Amino acid sequence: MQNKKSKIFHSDPRTKLYILLICALVISFSTSIYYECGLVMLILCFGVLNKKMRYSFGMAMLYVLLVSVSIMGALYLSGTPRLMLSAFTDFIGKMFPCIMAGGILVGTTQVSEFMAAMNCMKMPKNIVIPMTVMIRYIPMIREDWGYIKDSIKMRDVAPSLSGVLVHPGRTIECVYVPLVISASKVADELSAAAVTRGIETDKKRTCLEEIHFNFFDAVCAIVFTMYLLGTILA
Amino acid sequence: MSGISQKNNKGMTIKDMVTTGIFAALCFVLIMLGGAVFGVNPVLTFAVPIGSALLAGPVFLLLIAKVPKNGPLIITGIVTGAILFATGMHWTTDIGYILMGIVANYIAAAGGFKKIRLNIIAYMVFSLAGVGPYATFFLARDTFMSYMIKKGTEQDYLDTMTNTGQMWMLPAIIIGTLLVAFISGLIGKWLLNKQFEKAGITV
């Protein structure tokens, strides 16, 4: 159990969702890269306060790298390569703040906490359960894919474009079948686990992890909202 | 497994919801993967919906086969739209996935979720969701341009997009997307028949 002190900077999942929404809105309204840099700085602070030190700094460094690459490209390249590069950095740069905030959300939120938050927001079960499962499962797909790739290689099928061109049928089978079968196994196991824990009851869900807003949540929400307003008005 | 979940929630059991979540995650990743290959290049950017349609077909069809009820496709649409919004996509894509999820659901429902042809058509319709931004690009070019410039997209990128994007491109994108989605659906049908039904996954 965490003690009272370490809880001061533990923000509510709803706050994190709100911040994610604000990030998406800031990106929609931002008129220049400066706003995005500022946003990444804010998210960095938020991540550090949520004790995601390494992840936040790593992502921030990556963003700095991305921005410097795009500046270098604008300075030294011209014509088509420049366009390609700027399109690439632009594309990634637009998605970056949201991905970073999303990573912090997923990395710092327990599944039970997330479900409790969704229940507090009175979301219907039909959305809450698939959403929760999805957020947990997306990182697992990458892990699965690594194993599948290894086994495919052992059977002398290349999991690449050339493989698809040379042996279309076999490659497609070797990629999809394990991916889908493992997915449906996981679905069976997860639903059995969830039913065992009494997800089906009509009673109100309780949670060991109590979620409630605190002072830190309010500060975060206000800071991010101010930032959004600033971006819109500028 | 059928004995575990008796309680129905609008016809969907817990197992259905978990299955929907997992397959929606797979669909989402495959859609992103197919689209990302083209999205970074202004000339190829029009091919994004086509690329997105390429990979997810088998997973989509299997989801229908596993949970042949009203709901999973709508949920897939909503969840995909929500996550795409959170990653900063053009807003028509997000609305598109939600709408197309609903439409696809009713197309598949017309065949009782059992008619593979209707299911493939449902997938083709669902794939059209990615066309949204391009439709606004062609039909309301000025609005789109000012929106994208406000978003900070580089002028050069948009110029190249304008030069590549002649008026005949819109029907071409739509037809291309439908065609690729159809092929993807056929692959899905073939996999379903050959592998998944034998393995007893499609219950």
Automatic annotation (TrEMBL), chain A:
The chain crosses the membrane at residues 17-49, 61-79, 213-233. Pfam families: CbiQ. Keywords: Cell membrane, Membrane, Transmembrane, Transmembrane helix. It comes from the Bacteria. It is a multi-pass membrane protein. Its main location: membrane. GO terms for cellular component: plasma membrane. It is found in: Membrane. InterPro entries: ABC/ECF_trnsptr_transmembrane (IPR003339), ECF_transporter_component (IPR051611). The keyword Nucleotide-binding does not apply. This is Energy-coupling factor transport system permease protein. It comes from Anaeromicropila populeti. The lineage of its organism: Bacteria, Bacillati, Bacillota, Clostridia, Lachnospirales.
TrEMBL record, chain B:
Keywords: Membrane, Transmembrane, Transmembrane helix. The chain crosses the membrane at residues 21-40, 46-65, 72-89, 95-113, 120-140, 168-192. It comes from the Bacteria. InterPro entries: CHP02185_IM (IPR011733). NCBIfam families: Trep_Strep (TIGR02185). This is Energy-coupling factor transport system substrate-specific component.
